[in-house]
Amino acid sequence: MPAYRYKRFEERLFQRLVSVFVRIGMIIVRALRAAAALGRQRFTVMFIPHSERRIFNFHINVFSLVFALGLTAVMVVGFFALSTHFTGTKRLLETQSRNWEAAQTNIETIREEVAELQKAARTFQGTLNSTLGVVGINVPDKPLTVGAQGDLSSFLGLSEAQAGQIRELHDVQNIKAFLNNSVEPLNELKKVLSAQKDLLVDIPTLWPVRGVRGRVTSLFGPTLHPFSNQWYIHKGIDIAFGYNVPIVATARGKVVTIDYEPMGFGNYIVIRHKYGFYTKYAHLQKIMVTRGQEVQQGEVIGTMGNTGLSTGPHVHYEVRIGSEVVDPSKYLNISTAGADVWE
């Protein structure tokens, strides 16, 4: 395109743009004049009472009316916004108040539980010390110290034991320290019991009836004979339950006697154990071992019955040391494992 044509095109385009902007400016000016003229228009507002009083009226232009309406709208919107905010804040405060009360209740509950934990810990400490003393283990001189009892006045009014810790937390920490300190003596007790395990297996400490406790119908010592009604020395204990209940060896040993007495013990077994112990099991329904057999503690040797001179199904159980009869209950009190189900 030649230069003169490009120049002419540029001038025409510029003139057209100027013409468009001039027209737009004139339209804006006319609109502003029309708005100003409308805004300057005045209205008369009259308040006419129903009585014969004087009529009240005032004049207002459009600008003032728009401003008043806008101000009123802003005030109404602001009022509703503040009202909504106030209602939400009130609900939040009520919720927080309920949560606060629940927290105080929970704190009181925790305090009561801590007090019960303190009592249980003191009982455990006394029992542990007694047990350790029986087996000859030195008891560490570390008494359990707990805080004084008292109500919590409020969450903010909780008394502090040290460095910002509330009293109950301090007490729980004391109990935790006590339990940690108890681990070592308990381990010592475990070692002592482990060392004595073989001894407990070789002496008659197990309950002779498996799976049930049964009912002790006759104790060791003087008693009336159920048939002659005469006083005599009962040399064992009678444990009654029912037919065919398993009877077990109360210690590890060797079966030395299997016999039957129709007018006495009926079917009975005698087992020899270490340290001079002998045990006897009488009135058995069935005998499930043989003479000379080695039996383990807890092994079934027969079943409960009513053979011989008997008033009902039971087992007559005796313990002897050498030729001397002793009270079986003194040894059964050591361990009654196997009597895990009571009648």
Can you describe what's shown?
This protein has 343 residues and is an alpha+beta fold. Among the domains are: 118-199, no CATH class; 205-332, Distorted Sandwich (Glucose Permease (Domain IIA)), CATH 2.70.70. It contains five helices and 16 strands. The protein has helices at residues 3-40, 62-134, 167-195, 197-202, 329-332; strands spanning 42-47, 56-61, 160-162, 165-166, 215-218, 221-224, 231-234, 237-240, 246-248, 253-261, 266-273, 277-287, 294-295, 300-304, 314-321, 324-326. The strands form four sheets. Strands 5, 8, 9, 10, 11, 12, 13, 14, 15 and 16 form a ten-stranded antiparallel β-sheet that branches. A hairpin with a 4-residue loop joins strand 10 (253-261) and strand 11 (266-273). Helix 2 (62-134) packs parallel to helix 3 (167-195). The longest helix is centred in the N-terminal third of the chain and has 73 residues, at 62-134.
